Amino acid sequence: MTDGAVVDTRPTKIMYVAEATAHGGRNGYVTSQDGQLELKVAMPPALGGDGNGTNPEQLFAAGFSACFHNALVMVGRRAGLDLSGSTVAAKVGIGPNKQRGYGLAVALSVSLPVVDEDVAATLVDAAHEVCPYSNATRGNIEVTILLG
What we know:
Helix 1 (56-78) crosses helix 2. The strands form two sheets. Strands 1-2-3 form a three-stranded antiparallel sheet, with no helix packed on it. 29% of the residues lie in helices and 26% in strands. It is an alpha+beta fold and 148 residues long. It has helices spanning 56-78, 117-130, 132-137; strands spanning 20-23, 28-32, 38-41, 87-96, 102-111, 142-147.
């Protein structure tokens, strides 16, 4: 990785912009500008809600797992490997932080059944460097990556 120096991971060119709007916060619904996304959101029971809808943490987990998996497949392809059958699952936790707000923690579980453990670890490290979600969260929230 780096020798402790701050690495600038900001995009040099914006290639795509996603747009979404929340209506009612955690107890309402979210829509995307293109109409592909229209979901009811609700507080999960663990946070005092009825759980009758998705929530921001589930949406973040879906986005991070899909993005990281794509990065993994890309670095595998660059290494001449076919990672068919691989998966990435994400768990996103939320809880209070020391600043009287809330924070997130992420655990990614990566399954690479077609490569040995050393190769898998190298690919995961490379994917973690190129994944936009990894770059956005690095230094901000705890991200744990488990190979299994």
